[in-house]
Design a protein that fits this description.
The protein is of the alpha/beta class. It is built from ten helices and ten strands. The strands form two sheets. The chain has an eight-stranded mixed β-sheet, with helices on both faces. It has a two-stranded antiparallel ribbon with strand order 6-7. Strand 9, helix 8 and strand 10 form a beta-alpha-beta unit. It is globular. The N and C termini lie far apart (about 40 Å). It binds NADP nicotinamide-adenine-dinucleotide phosphate. The site of NADP nicotinamide-adenine-dinucleotide phosphate (NAP) has 23 residues, from helix 1 and helix 5.
Length: about 230
């Protein structure tokens, strides 16, 4: 598939690198490719600047958001939640596109831990779907860290859970297939796009567990009663 991965942070890199390894044609989207290619300082999380990763992943192209999306079969939104609507506006015509939305609505303006800038009666995924009504938004993968997203078998033999939320059954099917290709075995379809509220509101607890365990390598596993 031809896939546009919008976002050059650790999530965009993890997903773009994995998809390219799997043989997909991947272009990452960024605001200003020259600026991104000129970065020389690690990001706030201590990740190496983009050019270091770019050298190790030469098959992944880098382009402006709108150029990355041109002709793409699927678009991954791996941009900062506060900038996601701007990034998607900059991407141009998204009509008919499946958008795998990995973003979280984190607001760092009041310090740590971040708060959610949308919750309870709305989610960022719904804002994206409502802003781009002809796109097919599927929320997924936002409940786990970037490394586990593309390699869930690093933990508990991959026996843990990921969710999909979205209005379009075929789009959720495409995303679920992609997730299974990453190694996910327990993909729970929560329902329409309003069900993205729950996975987004897991973030405050995720952040506290990270703080307590001092590791991002954990996830939700939904244990069911035997039928
Ligand atoms: N880190 C994780 O493990 C993790 C786990 C689950 C979900 N998430 C979510 O995944 C998303 C990506 O996270 P991340 O840690 O990889 O990176 P991030 O630092 O949250 O986002 C980086 C990307 O956002 C873009 N961006 C920032 N502000 C923008 C604006 N105003 N307009 C347009 N684009 C803007 C940047 O564009 P440029 O390339 O132009 O700089 C960059 O590509 C976030 O929504 C995050 O909450 C992260």
């Amino acid at each position: 598939m031809k896939i546009a991965v919008l976002g050059t942070g650790m999530v965009g890199r993890a997903i773009a690198g994995k998809l390219a390894n799997q043989g997909h044609q991947v272009t990452m989207g960024t605001r200003d490719p020259n600026a991104t290619k000129s970065r020389s300082e690690p990001d706030q999380m201590g990740n190496p600047p983009f050019p270091v990763w770019g050298k190790e992943n030469p098959e992944v192209k880098l382009a402006k958001f709108n150029e990355a999306v041109l002709g793409a079969d699927m678009v991954v939104n791996a941009t900062n939640g506060a900038g996601s609507l701007d990034a998607l506006h900059a991407a141009g015509n998204l009509d008919g596109k499946v958008i795998l939305d990995v973003s979280n609505p984190l607001d760092f303006s009041k310090g740590m831990p971040p708060q959610l800038f949308v919750s309870n009666s709305e989610s960022l995924a719904e804002r994206i779907q409502n802003t781009f009504p002809a796109a097919k938004v599927v929320k997924s993968l936002n409940t786990t860290n970037a490394y586990l997203m593309v390699d869930p078998k690093q933990l508990a033999n991959g026996e843990h859970t990921v969710f999909v939320s979205g209005n379009d059954a075929a789009a959720k099917g495409k995303v679920s297939e992609l997730l299974r290709g990453f190694g996910w075995t327990d993909v729970i379809d929560l329902g329409d796009i309003t069900t993205a509220r729950g996975p987004e509101m897991w973030l405050p607890l995720w952040l506290r567990i990270w703080g307590s365990t001092q590791s991002p390598m954990f996830n939700l596993k939904i244990v069911r009663a035997a039928k």
